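User: I'm putting together a small comparison set for a docking exercise, and I want a reference complex before I start. The sequence is below, and the ligand is iron/sulfur cluster. Could you produce the 3D structure with the ligand included, as structure tokens?
Assistant: Of course. I'll restate your input first, then give the structure tokens for the complex.
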Amino acid sequence: MSMKHQAYAMFDSSTIPDDLCPIATKPTPMLPGDWRSMRPVVDRAKCVKCAVCWLYCPVQCVVERPAWFDFNLKTCKGCGICATECPQRAIAMIEEASA
Ligand code: SF4
Ligand code: SF4
């Protein structure tokens, strides 16, 4: 069975208006650290290096330190999943304004 060819292109980029939101039409160099409202802070005394935060972080910004896990705040989006999943309750989410 052969696929039926479409009679017209599905998407013609020349029809995009110039004033459309740039985030929707082209890649942006903005990183989550530019717009995040909350950031994770780890209590090093409570962290047992189980790596659960590393496993669950959806953007892979948890980084290993010699005795605990830390976060790459350039790419961390502040979702708080690491804090929710940490079995030791070692991660606190704090407001960027008070950081
Ligand atoms: S989940 Fe919690 S205890 Fe485990 S490595 Fe991460 S911060 Fe440490
Ligand atoms: S707050 Fe979200 S993005 Fe940031 S380290 Fe935790 S899980 Fe990753």
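The chain has a mean pLDDT of 85. The first helix runs from residue 22 to 25.
User: Thanks, that's exactly what I needed.
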